[in-house]
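fyi for ur records
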Amino acid sequence: MPARRRIALCQLSLALAAALASPAAVRAAGASSLELWYETSAERWTEALPVGNGSLGAMVYGGAIRDRLQFNLDTLWKGSPHDYAHPGAAEALPELRALLFAGQQREAEQLAGKQFMSVPLGQSAYQPCGDLWIEIPGADAAEVADFRRSLDLETAVATTSFRLGGSRCTRRVLSSFPAGAIFVELTSDRPQGLEFVLRITSPHKLAESRPAGESGLELVGRVGDGSPGSPERLEDRMRFAAQVRVLETDGAVEVSPGGLRVAGATRATLALTGATNFKSPDELNDARLDRATQRIAALRGTTFAAALAEHLADYQPRFGTVSISLGPKSTDSQPAEALPTDRRLVRSRDVPDPSLAALFFQYGRYLMLASSRPGSQPANLQGIWNNQLNPPWGSKYTTNINAEMNYWPIEPAHLTECVEPLFTALGEIARSGSQTARVYYDAPGWVLHHNFDLWRGTAPINASDHGIWPTGGAWLCEHLWQRWLYGGDREFLQTTAYPLMKGSAEFHADQLVEDPREPERFLVSGPSNSPEQGGLVMGPTMDHQIIRSLFANTIAAADELGVDREFRDRLAELHTRIAPHRIGRHGQLQEWLEDVDNPSNQHRHVSHLWGVYPGDEITPDEPELFRAAQVSLDHRGDGGTGWSRAWKVNLWARFRDGDRAHRVLHDLLQLTDSPLVEYTGGGVYPNLFDSHPPFQIDGNFGAVSGICEMLVQSHRTTTDGRPRIELLPALPAAWSTGSVRGLRTRGGFELEFSWSDSRLDAVRVSNPRGGAAFVEFEDLSHSVELAPGESADLADWR
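which gave:
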């Protein structure tokens, strides 16, 4: 071990011992197990703690003398309503296919780069809005003692507490969905001991702050690269406004051009609201900026206690639908919660900490509730949180894995309503995607390639070797079908899911072409790629898996609704003609039609395993294919980015290898980019954000679904169509004892069960709408049939 590393670990051991003896650690020992906490304020953005209500999010740094809330609005993006289509693109399509069938990949990519790409070549980026600064004038940081900052997942409240000058100061922050606002409470336990200065700023050049009445500040601006007073350009039409106001205090409030000052107080409650001029992907309307003022005016006089009560009444019933325990908090005498979260991450490398995985699971559910609520935009690459004007990959929606992974845990982890923003966006995408289908493919229906933004761009972007991937929309349709399988809402199937699925199926039915290289004249997809490797090709395996699933789901939906018999029969005929899976010379599932897979290739994408997860085409019912897919995953290795590791957790769970899934999850839960460690790569930051690197939230959500898959699977059915609910199909030895309540399965079943010594102890099954299922654990099983609202305790599991 390098000397530098030995010294670092020695220093860390001493720090851990000191932490356990600190007052903050003593308090932590009795704290909620669903809490992230730290002994220092955040120096970096990836150390700050996130709050959000779907539309308004903030990163709370928790500084004692100078605190910062960096905040975002979900509709604040670069650009303006825009049609990304390249006129005449379809004219190049026949030649592109001919070149690819002839093996002239380079020539095809060059042609596509000139005639088949988006205009402009890139899409718009998600933007930060501003920063709220809270400063204690004249205070000395050296006098701060007994500091603690935390995020309680059960209340969705971020708290900073410290002693200064003989008094205890506390700040609490929450983002309320009912109120559409962020609330901040500041208190001092010394009468009239609270004094602070408030400022609001923005990283945008074209923004300014100013007083707003006798107790508030206002931030107004627009997105753009110009200077104040410069003329507005078409691409700089996005405007924003934010208001912060002192709602109530027992002190004196003074507002000046430099900021807002509260003095001689014991308490103060602040509210922050924001708005943009976004109305729809097709329209901006500056009148909508007034919503920031209207919301904050409606909150005048609101106490923090009242805001908190309303917030908890909304949040807790949603978060509390699932509880989970994966074993003891620690395996030695030191309670896991007695360590700050960042140091706990370091210790968990070598000391088993099953409850850390449970915390990570619930943190992912918390992040979903904070970044995707009815009426908001969907969670993007960073959820709702972004502090950069030019964020990585635009912090937009990448649909060759990342946007979909965000929503994998929605149904099993009991967060169903959080998917509504995705379905709203999907309706908008279908409208712009129909234009792309016509212009690029001269085809009916609608298409989405591998990215979209606020303006619902659907054309191929970035570069032809990876941007031309036409199955992004078909993949998103999978979420529509899963909603039906889990919820059984026939009205949703008829009015929302089926029309979108049918439109996507119409496009792919039109675009599948016979492969002239094959004697069987199989149908293939293309031009396309196996996401982000291998370049432009015809017939990548992932495309065929997704299209087969789309066709099968659309057929089943048409049968359920009794509609479109002729179209349904056409899809059934095409389904049988799509190029089948192939097993290559290494015993692997081929990623392409050609047997060119490299066993040493450990690329982050595992695209051709889509049929294992999130699809359900490759299961133990097809043992040869199942084994070939497992060989492919083994070749890819266990490393990669955070989201890649999260996908592998789900895949190893589907392969019934709980210990391998746990090992990958353990590697994902390694601290990165922190002074405490030298480790770099795809792990987590001190605030448990997933590291690509940089931060991408998909790994947080993918880990939640992976843990769900380790504990419960329901993607297979019996011969008579009942869900097969498999309990503990991939339980690792590290989680030999545990319990869970609230996980959901296909068919609408809700589960509560516990286990010890890796064997089931008790199982309760319920279903709000009733139904029949087959519940299995290893070689034991129960047939269950429930009336609506009925539950049943299943015995004899040992």
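The two ends are 46 Å apart (CA to CA). thats all i got for now
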